[in-house]
Design brief:
0% strand; 64% helix; elongated
């Protein structure tokens, strides 16, 4: 149950991180320039949008890393069985069955001398 919750949260955070990264444009475009305009640049709107996108990218990436590490502890544990002891028990407990041995009839062919 907990592991499933971690997987769902990881998927949501990863999706949000993809969206935030796709909105950003390293050349100054993207969401920050589309909301820019003439008046908002004087007020610092573009800079605030860029700071928000940067901070949200770092925050989501740290949250994603933490969720992945925590999900490792919540993962269901698989019981590991020692297979070598099972193989040894099978070998020791098997019944030896005598299978009939079939032999091919021996035919003698004349030997030819090939040396000249």
């Amino acid at each position: 149950m907990t592991y499933t919750l971690f997987l769902v949260l990881i998927m949501i955070v990863a999706f949000l991180l993809i969206l935030i990264i796709m909105v950003q444009n390293p050349k100054g475009g993207g969401l920050s320039s589309s909301f820019g305009g003439g008046g908002t640049q004087a007020l610092g709107g573009v800079q605030n949008t860029t700071n928000f996108l940067d901070k949200s990218t770092w925050t989501l990436s740290i949250v994603l890393l933490a969720l992945i590490l925590l999900s490792n502890f919540a993962a269901p544990k698989v019981n590991v069985v020692d297979t070598s002891s099972e193989i040894e028990n099978t070998i020791q407990n098997r019944e030896v069955q005598d299978a009939p041995v079939q032999t091919a009839p021996v035919t003698s062919a004349p030997v030819q001398d090939t040396v000249k």
